[in-house]
Write a structure and sequence with these properties.
By secondary structure, the protein is mostly helical. Helices cover 70% and strands 0% of the residues. The chain has a domain of 54 residues. The longest helix has 44 residues.
């Protein structure tokens, strides 16, 4: 007589979730954590909405700043030479608009240009104190723009000269020479040479002109520097017994254009 050995099943009861497909398991998990999923989704939507709102706001600010800057530039440029009152009024209005861009839209790219032109407009209005502050504010805020920084320091130096502060003008001109990438170093060397001449320091002037001629031989200021070098050398070593010719005066400081 044969006997059958009954083997007991070693495994426990089968979990129903093991019989579900991958997609079904996913929906089961969603159902189990529905509250957490809903909260996470709501938070994600809120973050996306906030980011989009910031982008829209910045874009709107940039558009408004650009529009104001365009109005200011139109007034600044359109100053009829034969109508002094109209020209003065346009200049004043442009200053107001440039200032508005700088103060109300400081985070826009246009604010940088408006601040620069604000300084220029203030110089034209002979408000030299505010012009100096505008240029200094630009240098402190947008100093990373090396090309524009060189131009700002040069404009700052001219404002100091017009205000009678020669020492500060020299410092501002000299600051341009320390700016990497500045494109106006040749002109600044020429201006520094002229300032040395007006201070009756021919040796200093000669050094500036020679530096200009050596470092920037293709500069449009190099030819004028060569003329000044010859004049200074003639003055330095006059012919024996000859009366020195009439001194060639350095050209005046150019009037700032628009």
């Amino acid at each position: 007589m044969s006997y059958r050995i009954k083997l007991e099943s070693r495994g426990g009861p089968v979990d129903e979730t093991q019989l579900l497909s991958g997609m079904e398991r996913f929906f089961v998990l969603l159902e189990e954590h529905r509250r957490t999923v809903l909260l996470g989704s709501a938070l994600l939507l809120a973050v996306v909405a906030a980011v989009l709102a910031v982008i829209w706001y910045d874009q709107r600010q940039a558009e408004q700043a650009l529009e104001l800057h365009h109005q200011a530039m139109t007034l600044y440029v359109d100053r009829p030479s034969g109508q002094a009152a109209k020209a003065d009024e346009n200049l004043k209005q442009s200053i107001v608009l440039f200032q508005q861009v700088v103060e109300q839209y400081p985070r826009t790219p246009t604010a940088q240009l408006s601040l620069y032109h604000l300084g220029n407009a203030l110089v034209q209005a002979n408000d030299l104190g505010r012009a100096v502050e505008s240029y200094k504010n630009y240098a402190a805020t947008y100093g990373a723009n090396k090309v524009m920084l060189g131009m700002v320091y040069q404009r700052l130096a001219y404002a100091y000269l017009l205000n009678g502060d020669r020492d500060q003008a020299v410092k501002a001109f000299s600051a341009v020479l320390e700016v990497p990438g500045a494109l106006n170093k040749d002109q600044v060397l020429f201006e520094l040479g002229r300032l040395e001449e007006t201070q009756s320091r021919p040796e200093g002037a000669l050094a500036r002109y020679q530096d200009l001629s050596k470092s920037y031989p293709n500069s449009p200021f190099a030819s004028e520097a060569a003329v000044r070098i010859k004049a200074l050398e003639v003055k330095k070593v006059p012919e024996a017994g000859a009366q020195p010719s009439q001194e060639q005066k350095p050209p005046p400081v150019p009037e700032l254009g628009k």
